[in-house]
Task: inverse folding
């Protein structure tokens, strides 16, 4: 009798679990459905505002009499949700996405208000694709915007690659695609003048592992810290080891609090050769190595990497947010220069 009671109890607990899973799935679907209807409704409101303008009444720019009046009257009749800024975003939603079908069902109204505050069309397109591809929350989107992710990725690319980045988001097809320069660790909340050891920096990064992986990018899975390699009875340690699920390879990271030197690069090259021979499984791709330093001498790095056949990169990190306006200016300058070069070739 006792055994019978136990066998009945187990399926019942599974029944409770199954019902709970269905409820959660249903609630998520309901929230998503309501959100899609809300975004579509706001798009149609924006369309109404723009069409009213086009009849010769007035431009509904932020602060205009039309938006002030609309905000006052709609709030009086329908309640909250019709602030002047919200109405301006509805208007912008229609102007930036003239076809309602191009709006993504994966993005909330809060996502779109954040995206619509990005003035540059290329950057906005990039962040929209990344939100969809990587399922960013609004908080993650805001953090990546503030850290100038688009500019950091785009500055190392040619014009064609920048346009592709904006249209498709970050595609991870080869080793270079996972690289950022610089990496930004502002989430550690470390004052600029704080003296850190490499061990302390490593410990702080791992204490914020989810934010660290968000900065590294999609596909990274943490494997180990201080990964020990033994050669001829001498021990070496790789600071951080990850596995990249998309590129199907190990990614080794060594942290340097000062300027990277040629010994650091040579040591990482040794680690890569070791992993290739001793740790890789038959279906793994060659490992990637990143020496992540506070600073670097570009000429030294160029010569030190000159004859290395492994996928080895040297990148910088920052403990504070970069000057976003300066990065935007640099990117715009590079794109303008490339436009001039192309016009001269025609």
Result:
């Amino acid at each position: 009798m006792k055994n019978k009671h136990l066998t009945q109890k187990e399926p019942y607990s599974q029944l409770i679990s199954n019902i709970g899973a269905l409820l959660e799935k249903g609630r998520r679907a309901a929230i998503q459905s309501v959100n899609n209807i809300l975004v579509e409704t706001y798009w149609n409101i924006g369309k109404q505002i723009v069409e009213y303008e086009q009849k010769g009444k007035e431009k509904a720019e932020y602060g205009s009499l039309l938006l002030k009046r609309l905000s006052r009257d709609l709030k009086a009749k329908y309640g909250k949700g019709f602030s002047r800024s919200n109405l301006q975003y509805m208007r912008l939603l229609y102007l930036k996405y003239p076809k309602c079908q191009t709006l993504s069902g994966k993005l909330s109204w809060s996502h779109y208000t954040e995206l619509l505050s990005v003035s540059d069309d290329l950057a906005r397109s990039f962040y929209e694709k990344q939100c969809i591809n990587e399922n960013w929350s609004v908080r993650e989107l805001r953090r990546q915007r503030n850290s100038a992710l688009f500019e950091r990725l785009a500055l190392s690319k040619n014009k064609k690659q920048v346009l592709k980045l904006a249209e498709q988001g970050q595609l991870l097809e080869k080793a270079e695609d996972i690289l950022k320069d610089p990496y930004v660790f502002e989430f550690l909340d470390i004052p600029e003048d704080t003296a850190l050891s490499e061990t302390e920096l490593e410990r702080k990064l791992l204490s914020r592992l989810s934010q660290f992986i968000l900065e590294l990018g999609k596909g990274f899975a943490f494997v180990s810290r201080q990964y020990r390699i033994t050669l001829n009875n001498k021990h070496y340690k790789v600071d951080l080891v990850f596995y990249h699920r998309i590129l199907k390879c190990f990614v080794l990271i060594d942290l340097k609090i000062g300027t990277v030197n040629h010994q650091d690069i040579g040591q990482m090259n040794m680690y890569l050769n070791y992993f290739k021979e001793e740790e890789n499984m038959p279906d793994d791709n060659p490992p990637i190595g990143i020496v992540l330093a506070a600073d670097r001498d570009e000429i030294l790095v160029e010569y030190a990497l000159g004859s290395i056949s492994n996928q080895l990169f040297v990148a910088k990190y920052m403990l504070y947010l970069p000057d976003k306006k300066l990065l935007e200016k640099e990117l715009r300058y590079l794109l303008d220069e490339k436009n001039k070069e192309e016009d001269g070739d025609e």
